[in-house]
Amino acid sequence: MRLVALCLGVMLIALGCSGSPDSQKSPHVSTSGKIAAERPSMAAAAGEEPQRRLVSVGGVLLSVLEAGTGDPVIFVHGVVTTSNIFWNYVNAYSPDYRGVAVDLRGYGDSDKPESGFNIDQFAKDLIGLADRLGFEKPVWVGVSMGGMIVQRLALDYPTRFRALVLVSTTDGPMILDKDIDTIGAPRDYRTVSKNILLESFPPGTNPALYQPLLSKIPTWNATVLREALRSMSQFDVHSRLSQIDAPTLVMVGAKDDVATVAIAKGIAAEMRGAQVAEFNTGHFIMAEDPQAFGAVLGKFLRSLKS
Prior knowledge:
Helix content: 25-40%
CATH architecture: 3-Layer(aba) Sandwich
CATH topology: Rossmann fold
Number of helices: 10
């Protein structure tokens, strides 16, 4: 539990998911399938601090945060976050798993080309990244839009994944803004991004949990947000999910009114080998309860080894 203890202190403020044990009671975690309701300990950190570097993929430099050794796990963020939200987890499961969290094109420290900020292109970029890193079949972990990207990737590249973790996501359209075309002019993308983030947390949430996420908003721009939100609003793979036959963990917050429990259970029902883990949180499980998120993810990853 050393890594979790550290992340709940100063480190989390810089990472994008801060908090402390005293700021919230640890919520109940209910699960189905092979993931038991117990909270196993996260793997002890190997002492290696996550490192960031740039990797060229199709002429676009993608910023990756990586640490640890072992089989690869690639973390994919959502529409109003960056790879920093996964800082606590890239080295949490070493030496069994090497973690890599990527800033999608347009986000964080990655290049910001003129276009290509959609789910299909993001999936292509991720396969290119896996190729460059020499990962044939990584475990893919996707949150919100990241979960949509991971679903698209699994369907379009069925031989390029070992297992999937879908967090706070949907298999159909996710509408986070009803006037997408006006983002940038007259509506400022930073205001739209802030509103999306704040609405993703339950009322009364300690601001310390989402303030670090708000600080990353200036790392993208209006075009990125507009194209990504439009792509999410047109997403629909529901009729194809039965094609995916691989270990899959679907994680959902009971207080999430966008990627709901019903949607999560529907996704799992369509996919052979899928199971659901339900948390007493809103959309950003890893920000509201990093201990439970890390423990349940860790147990799933360990189950792949057995």
